[in-house]
């Protein structure tokens, strides 16, 4: 049996942030720290005082953590980044909200005297009898102190204060885990009403010393107990109240879980697997139906993702999804509203696509998204939002008309849409077989349920593929790891219009979309053509595998490359023994690339790199492509590499 804590955090947006740049704006991003250890950095949102991030993370924590701090920073290219403010959430605050906290929290100013961490090992005791009593404090050691110096450490010493007198320990140079083993004594005052204050400081040769935290003991409590010994958490100085620095909208939920041995879960797993294998039984109440009806909308997504992972591990995910399709279609429903609700079937299929289809998503959308970010074209079709600008060469300026701006935007958008549809239409062989099989089941079930509405089975597939997968990824590529930063305002508007176009194509009825937003009418011919192409693509996607030919000249179906989970600089710390990373790095920085299949590394992003298959040891002769597209999965940590790799190597991403 094991205990663990899981933190779900969504950093939504900020508002009314102070301007830190001379332009009257800021370039904000967030850093999340658990007990003062940084674990998450969001993307930077440029030139705004009301940034939107919308980034979600799931982090596994030690059950004994104390607090979560979220710092809002202003990124600067030529100097150190400015600290705008922070939000601190303690474990006790999260315990008061078992369903999670959601809302706006005001930012507070960051005081260096409040940025403390770590613990100190002390033994404090009262000695002697009445008339000659002494207060003795043995300062043994400290651990995990804050790093205040440029060398990544501190020079800590201890200062003890009691009854107006001060004593100090020696300074331990360049250490966050110092050992002192020194003892200090004070004459006990009568009456002994004073408190003993034990402070830890970072010694600096130039400038003032930095405060690292303190522990305060009540003398009355010591007289009763006689002695106190153990590790004591260092605490900051009293907080100072400052003016408003804006606010941050957060959604934070903490789950404390007790994980039992695997055999304890086998009866439930067997029951679920048996139900999925039997399929839908008329007149029988199914367990998954009870799960659907008894879970709230807030937790249904979590239930769906866990069930998908469970049945993937059992090799029954196709049967599970098919059962959900059958049960959903057995309810009274209309063909034009199929799978548009947040039912367990809809959430499970959406989670299934995100778990199994991310490499395919990157393969299809990546080139077009990259082109949109690089070109930064001005695209606008709404007359109410058109910006009129001067055009022409020097001396021949003229003002573009509204119609010219809209026509130019239509051409750009139609070009992006055409390129994206070309990629989708060609991607049927690259779609993972498991995803194709799931869509094939869905296509057949809907066709059997609505034989008189054959159009419905195409819409059922596109409702997931386009509306819940492609379109959200186009709108916010950062959240799907297609980009390492959020789009600027101009690029974001282009992506929004492109995502809207994909939605209209996925609806398979572009005319209905035009009725809501008449300014989309210039795009109608392209949407109609895209609908016809999408219908042909769905027909090929759900075709039986034996009906599919192989790609010309390749001898096998085209497949997407492995999805990049994380890449960047890797600093290898040598501890003991030898390993493939140590042999290549010898204490130097490496560029690494982690995919679902391998870990590759080299001296530079463009160099050929070696790869270590996960669980398969080193493959010294295997080469990987150059590291070129940064991509970070939210919540990913190299801690998993340390735990799952050899004990001789320690890897830290920088």
TrEMBL record:
Region Disordered, annotated ranges: 617-654
Keyword Coiled coil: no
UniProt keyword list: GTPase activation
SUPFAM superfamilies linked to this entry: C2 domain (Calcium/lipid-binding domain, CaLB) (SSF49562), GTPase activation domain, GAP (SSF48350)
Gene3D superfamilies: C2 domain (2.60.40.150), GTPase Activation - p120gap, domain 1 (1.10.506.10)
UniProt-listed Pfam families: C2 (PF00168), RasGAP (PF00616)
Residue ranges with Polar residues bias: 636-654
C2 domain: residues covered: 1-105, 116-232
Protein name, entry field: Ras GTPase-activating protein 4-like
Native species: Cyanistes caeruleus (Eurasian blue tit)
Source taxonomy: Eukaryota, Metazoa, Chordata, Craniata, Vertebrata
Gene (UniProt): LOC111937930
